[in-house]
Write a structure and sequence with these properties.
about 450 residues, alpha+beta, five-stranded antiparallel beta sheet, 11 helices, 21 strands, about 20% helix, binds zinc ion
Length: about 450
């Protein structure tokens, strides 16, 4: 995963009931001028126009998507119809305001020009402008994506030349260059700007604060990479290297890979390579991780931690350290979700050696005790795979084989390991669980000393 990909905030949403996006959006749509985030110049001008009763008959809201154009159009509709306007601001509680808010005001006509651009639709729409409003003081036409109108402009222009007193047109567009100059000259134009990160953060804070929650948005670069996915009990959990004043372990879950729920980060910075076990062990959730520093850490051991609720982590245990003079001499980190076998948890992990040309990432295997996984039953002293073909040796980060997922088919004994090569492509490696276990069994004895001697032997 590229670090510049989606960067979740660190909102503590663990306790939030999963709510559809739309509901949240509707619930938090700004209802008054005062609730609009950003667009200060636009809001001030419109509010003054309402206060002094000098609102134009044709308004054009220009700006990117999501800048509040239609929200503000509805607020204008309220402001010119509310009997209790105070300082240009509608009360948002009277019958007119609530009818507009709920979308049941007959005199507020919203249309999307992207789907209604035929001359007949426009003619019908404009014929109705001459009839008096049915329950409000003034009719408000809100036309979204107005630049998409292709055939109705002539009729519209006539109406805009001499509009009835009881009508206000609010045109919204993402592309004003597509609108005819004749129309532009007959409307008052308002330009909406994109919200800054601070403004979005402020808005998010208010939304979360209303539910007694908090959010924190970090500026600039955020770590968001190296995800691991684990099926645990009834859902998919994702752990990844998240950014929170430095890299640490993010935790979230999903049922469908469309809606994601983020829990608190598991640890303080700095930490990487957090991997959940696929079931509770001794009643507790369990995770492997690798405490690190803020850079390209030149050290790293694998640790084990427990949690009763996937939020509070403790009972940390040391699992494994790098091994001098081997492919895993600089640092090691857990790879895919540990695989449960009768002999123990099969852990595929990456190990790094520092060569005269930088880090070299390879993958190896270890076997951890089923009930006390911080105890290493066996450990491979040879790598399973190291960067040896061009796509593993050449890329954004040279000489990297980095395992992050594994699928096992118990019936055929086959294991498929997904690994990143040179931080550029994702690769698959196939093998057999029984063969890896056999090699671990063989290597857990005097073989280790032999391997170390081999590494020491001078050339020739
Ligand atoms: Zn009102």
């Amino acid at each position: 995963m590229n670090p510049s990909d989606s960067q979740p905030s660190n909102a503590s949403l663990a306790d939030a009931a999963p709510a559809p996006h739309r509901a949240l959006y509707r619930r938090w749509r700004a209802q008054t001028f005062g609730e609009i985030v950003g667009q200060e110049a636009v809001v001030t001008t419109l509010r003054n126009a309402v206060r002094t009763n000098r609102l134009a008959h044709g308004l054009l809201f220009v700006g990117p998507r999501g800048t509040g154009k239609t929200s503000l159009a509805r607020i204008v509709a309220k402001a010119i119809n509310c009997p209790n306007v105070h300082d240009g601001e509608p009360d948002d509680t009277c019958e007119a305001c609530t009818a507009i808010r709920d979308g049941r005001a007959l005199d507020v006509i919203e249309m999307d020009a992207a789907s209604n651009n035929k001359v007949d639709d426009m003619r019908e729409l404009l014929e109705r402008t001459w009839t008096a409003p049915s329950d409000l003081k003034r009719k408000v036409y809100i036309v979204d994506e107005v630049q998409r109108i292709k055939e109705g402009w002539d009729v519209l222009l006539k109406t805009l030349e001499e509009p009835p007193d009881h009508v206000v047109f609010i045109f919204c567009t993402t592309d004003a260059s597509q609108i005819r100059p004749a129309v532009l000259s007959r409307v008052q134009r308002f330009d909406f700007t994109r919200l800054s990160v601070e403004q979005i953060a402020g808005k998010l804070d208010r939304i979360l604060a209303a539910d007694g929650r908090t959010a924190e948005i970090q500026h600039g670069f955020e770590h968001a990479y190296d995800p691991r996915v684990t099926w645990l009990e009834d859902r998919w959990y994702i752990t990844w290297c998240n950014g929170y004043h430095g890299p640490t372990i993010g935790v979230g879950y999903t049922f469908d890979f469309e809606t994601f729920h983020q829990l608190d980060n598991a640890f303080l910075p700095f930490n990487r390579n957090g991997v959940l076990f696929p079931r509770r062990i001794g009643g507790a959730y369990a995770m492997l991780s690798r405490p690190s520093d803020n850079g390209h850490t030149a050290f790293g051991d694998i640790f084990y931690s427990e949690s009763p609720d996937l939020v509070h982590w403790g009972r940390h245990r040391h699992v494994m350290a790098p091994e001098a003079w081997t492919w895993q001499s600089t640092k090691i980190g857990a790879g895919p979700t540990p695989i449960e076998t009768p002999e123990g948890w099969l852990l595929i992990y990456h190990g790094v050696l520092t060569s005269c040309n930088g880090f070299v990432y390879s993958m190896g295997a270890a076997l951890l005790d089923l009930d006390e996984p911080w105890k290493v039953v066996a450990r491979g002293h040879d790598y399973l795979l190291s960067p040896q073909v061009p796509y593993e040796q050449v890329g954004d980060v040279p000489n990297v084989v980095f395992p992050c997922a594994a699928l096992v088919d118990p019936a055929s004994d086959r294991i498929t390991i997904y690994y990143g090569a040179a931080d550029t492509v994702t690769c698959l490696a196939h093998g057999y669980v029984s063969e890896i276990l056999a090699s671990l069994r063989k290597e857990s004895g005097p073989q280790r000393i032999h391997a170390l001697c081999e590494a020491w032997r001078p050339p020739g």
